[in-house]
Design goal:
Number of strands: 0
Shape: globular
Structural class: mainly alpha
Distance between the termini: 30 Å
């Protein structure tokens, strides 16, 4: 089974949704680079955290909003319906995928030691 680059599982507990989304993009002939986290996304996160002192939830929300326009609706809908077994509209499917992309971005930044996740505050 494939896994997402630098994903730790701290926030994104199940990678199958994003993996299925990337598979759907490939079947549609769309390069997954349109949606994957970039250095700009990581810089945005780090800057927001260190300059704005935002919470993890706020960072996740800001990144989700940043990813939504980059999520391909048809591929998102296919992935969400297949993995979750629920029929959803394209808008909701894009939001679900964008949130997972945001979580993955935070995990990447944590793995790169650019930020430090303190998940004990969530328990």
């Amino acid at each position: 089974m494939h896994s997402l680059f630098m994903a730790s599982g701290k926030l994104l507990k199940n990678q199958s949704l994003l993996l299925k989304y990337f598979e759907a993009l490939e079947k549609m002939g769309i390069d997954k680079s349109v949606s994957v986290p970039t250095s700009d996304d990581i810089s945005f996160l780090v800057k927001a955290i260190y300059e704005g002192k935002i919470s993890l939830l706020e960072a996740l929300s800001a990144l989700t909003r940043r990813f939504i326009p980059r999520v391909i609706g048809e591929a998102a809908k296919k992935a969400v319906e297949e993995v979750l077994g629920e029929e959803v509209d394209t808008i909701l499917a894009r939001e679900i995928i964008a949130k997972d992309l945001a979580a993955w971005t935070i995990e990447i930044a944590d793995r790169m030691h650019l930020i430090k996740l303190n998940l004990s505050i969530l328990k």
